[in-house]
Amino acid sequence: MPITVPAYGKEAAGRLASMADVTADDGALRRFLHGLPGVDAVGLEARAATLGTRSIKTTAKAYAIDLGISMIDLTTLEGADTPGKVRALCAKGIHPDPTDRTSPQVAAICVYPDMVATAKEALGDSGIHVASVATAFPAGRAALPVKLADTRDAVAAGADEIDMVIDRGAFLSGRYMDVFEEIKAVKEACARPDGSAAHLKVIFETGELQTYDNVRRVSWLAMLAGADFIKTSTGKVAVNATPPVTLLMLEAVRDLHAATGVQVGVKPAGGIRTTKDAIKYLVMVNETLGEPWLTADWFRFGASSLLNDLLMQRQKLSTGRYSGPDYVTVD
User: Fold this and answer.
1) Which of 32, 86, 309, 323 is the most buried (most CB within 10 A)?
2) Catalytic residue at 280?
3) C-beta separation of 306 from 69 below 8 A
4) What is the dihedral of CA 152, 154, 155, 158, to 10 degrees?
5) Measured distance CA(84)–CA(75) in Å, rounded
């Protein structure tokens, strides 16, 4: 079934305008971000660990597996990527299990900007979105005009979603307004001539942000700047998504929604490889944000290797036996 991801539109922007005073200038933004409650690290980690112990029954597990498959951004971001590899990945995204056409499709195919047109053509009218990393992914070390050109090229090529990376150096040195304005500029670059816009996911690279307090601050900063999704990681560093960090981001999304009514999505990326891990994250979403976020519209997994484990577990529930990794395609 085609996936329609709601864009961050004028209505949401209008509701965020009620908080415009906190982004009026650098001093106001700094006071707001540093005025957020400090994170209780022990409590956060204990809560994440407790949620990770929840067990679910077989029927719920089958539902969770299909839900997890439908939330995956199937990704190839290598220097050796070829059009053939991208087309093969798109084919897998459309039919993850060629032996069972009841398997859901993935949410999106994520590629570099120069592969967007290839992916768009290969996916056709499947309803699967094309996501493109931009803004000098994964380091984010480029001048703003270069980042904006990167974004516009991807959107012009047909990208439905843009995954941008923030300037971690600017954030860690306290230049919050610089990061805020950059996100806003990239958001504007996502606009299309017909008035629609590509969906914007903002990547924090949480493994480089040093503290939980910084994760809370950057979550609010990105959401106030117009992020449709907030995303943990590029998957290109040693420490990527973790349950405590993801829980903290979910709580920030919950608090923004309570304050403004604006709904923002969350995408943990990197290091989520097993069905058991995926279900822990889905439990966390349900317990923190509730059922409205349990769709690909508002929650994604940036974890391509996860798909094969989900497929093997799905086959196990269907046949009663493990099929093994030889029964699924290798990306």
Assistant:
1) 86
2) no
3) no
4) 150
5) 14
Look at residues 176, 185, 82 and name the one whose alpha carbon lies nearest to residue 142: 185
For the chain, the 3-state helix, strand and coil shares in percent, each to the nearest 5, are 55, 10, 35
One DSSP character per residue, 204-220 reads --GGGS-SHHHHHHHHH
Distance of CA 276 to the CA centre of its chain: 19
Which residue type occupies 52?
G
**187 counts as catalytic:** no
Catalytic-labelled residue, pool 92, 120, 147, 231: 231
Segments of 219-286 assigned E as strands: 229-231, 265-267
pTM, entire model: 0.91
Asked about 201 being catalytic, the answer comes back as: no
Residues 119 and 130: their CA atoms lie apart, in Å, by 7
Q: Which of 163, 277, 297, 309 is catalytic?
A: 163
Nearest 5 degrees, angle CA 17-CA 19-CA 22? 125
pLDDT in tens, the chain (331 residues): 334 444 445 566 667 777 888 999 999 999 999 999 999 999 999 999 999 888 788 789 999 999 999 999 999 999 999 999 999 999 999 999 998 989 999 999 999 999 999 999 999 999 999 999 999 998 888 999 999 999 999 999 999 999 999 999 999 999 999 999 999 999 999 999 999 999 999 999 999 999 999 999 999 999 999 999 999 999 888 788 999 999 999 999 999 999 999 999 999 998 899 999 999 999 999 999 999 999 999 999 998 889 999 999 999 887 776 666 655 565 5
Task: Give the separation between CA 118 and CA 271, rounded to whole angstroms.
Answer: 27
140 in Cβ contact with 166 (< 8 Å):
yes
AA identity, residue 261: G
